[in-house]
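Section handout, structural biology tutorial.
Before the tutorial, make sure you can parse a SMILES string by hand: atoms, branches in parentheses, ring closures as digits. In the record below the ligand is zinc ion, and the chain has 211 residues. In the tutorial you will relate the predicted structure tokens back to the input. Do not try to memorize them.
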Amino acid sequence: MFREILDLLFPPQCAACRRIGSGLCGECVPIRSSAVTRTLDTLDVYSLGEYYGAFRAAILAIKDGRRDVAEALGDRLASIVKKGTVLVPVPTLRSRVWTRGVDAVELLARRAARASNAEVQTALMCRSGIGQRGKTRASRLESRGRFSCDQSMVRDRHITLVDDVCTTGATLEDCAGVIREAGGVVTGALTIAVVLDKRDLARPALSRSRH
Ligand SMILES: [Zn+2]
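Predicted structure of the complex:
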């Protein structure tokens, strides 16, 4: 109810073209599309699109706290979820978690899972955050590099990582490594956007003019 009133007062606008109606319109990012694939050293990354134009604008909007944009992208991600895998969100550094404790990447994973009947396990943690979760929990964790993994959530299961964007691929490889050490089978990763060409990082966020 509160949300409906807010929508009336401040109607949602597309993060990329500013069209009124939703957080992300179907023209900027189609509701269904085939995945863009990038092969890293040990896993394949499937993405909705390349990291420029509308996709870059949408990801920047998510980092700014636009929950409606994260929900719209999570729903679109569902179309490329592989059946029978467990979705594991890449953890966000505590300093980057949205206000009120909402983590954008976890929200993406939960929306994608809801629309595709997949399961989500928040098995990964940033090592700097482990102390806050208690030492008994930490004792069941496999650690490597920046991340730790709860073995009980991934052992002998088929895991798909979820992140917002894949740039160098190093974060996804680190996460895949710690999950494998904890006994999980990493089948791939899903991201909203992927960098296929490093020159994209220098391109502006918006490719379209206002409608
Ligand atoms: Zn748009």
